[in-house]
Structure to design on (267 residues):
């Protein structure tokens, strides 16, 4: 990580190769207009943590935290008031009992001419948020879909949906696997690596049945039944399924063919 602080301008005095040698591997390198190259390094970061302590009708607790670095002339200040987390830049909901985590980042951005000599130097800053159990800093985009759902998009094109009420993370595409028997569905989840995670599983019978009410937030939902990971108590050759044609669950023989919708996480 770079040392915080801003040296005197070196525009026209250093080259791209010299900057790499001095600052190390950059976070991002991109080509801009006129065959120029813009390079970004992380200069400094401050971790931030706060908690949601009440619901809309409950008591209000205030938590104020300030991260300030005078060398980089940037200050972030946020206030947690019950169910809401507010800052000068963004507003986020926190589920009751949830945790708001993130970091304040300061960046050094250098733009080099076509001949490799420094043309412009800038300092920028930003806030990266992560809500434990329902969003992911490893995603390149976290989009709030509703008061309950967060859509996470990853650099490799994977997409997940996080349920901030339950802490569960689902595949956004509910048709990632063809209809199959229960044993094959279990193996599919066990072997699945998606969005960088390997702990995928079949949901329980109540959770998959309730997905009927939320299916409008997802893509590829099939008009049929989806396997749960739960076998029948007295009929272990059968397993529960959730029906996407209505908020119902059924016991089907494990040898029958139904759809697969992996899930992970949860509180």
């Amino acid at each position: 990580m770079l040392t915080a602080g801003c040296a005197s301008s070196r525009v026209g005095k250093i080259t791209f190769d010299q900057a790499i040698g001095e600052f190390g591997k950059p976070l991002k390198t991109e080509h801009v207009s006129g065959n120029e190259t813009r390079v970004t390094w992380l200069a400094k970061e401050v971790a931030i943590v706060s908690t949601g302590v009440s619901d809309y009708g409950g008591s209000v607790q205030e938590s104020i935290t300030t991260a300030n670095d005078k060398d980089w002339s940037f200050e972030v200040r946020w206030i947690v008031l019950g169910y809401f987390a507010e800052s000068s830049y963004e507003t986020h909901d926190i589920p009751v009992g949830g945790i708001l985590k993130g970091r304040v980042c300061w960046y050094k951005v250098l733009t080099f001419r076509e001949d490799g000599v420094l043309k412009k130097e800038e300092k920028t800053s930003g806030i990266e948020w992560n809500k434990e159990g329902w969003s992911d800093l490893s995603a390149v985009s976290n989009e709030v879909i509703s008061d309950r759902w967060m859509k996470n998009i990853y650099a490799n094109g994977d997409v997940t949906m996080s349920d901030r009420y339950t802490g569960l993370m689902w595949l956004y595409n509910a048709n990632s696997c063809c209809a199959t028997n229960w044993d094959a569905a279990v193996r599919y989840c066990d072997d699945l690596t998606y969005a960088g995670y390997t702990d995928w599983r079949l949901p329980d019978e109540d959770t998959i049945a309730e997905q009927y009410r939320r299916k409008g937030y997802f893509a590829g939902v099939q008009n049929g039944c989806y396997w749960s990971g739960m076998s029948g108590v007295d009929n272990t050759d059968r397993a529960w399924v959730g029906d996407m044609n209505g908020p119902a669950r059924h016991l089907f023989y494990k040898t029958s063919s139904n759809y697969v919708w992996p899930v992970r996480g949860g509180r």
User: Anything to note?
Assistant: The longest strand covers residues 36-51. Confidence is low (pLDDT under 50) at residues 1-7, 51-99. The helical segments are 16-23, 182-191, 205-214. DSSP finds three helices and 16 strands in the chain.
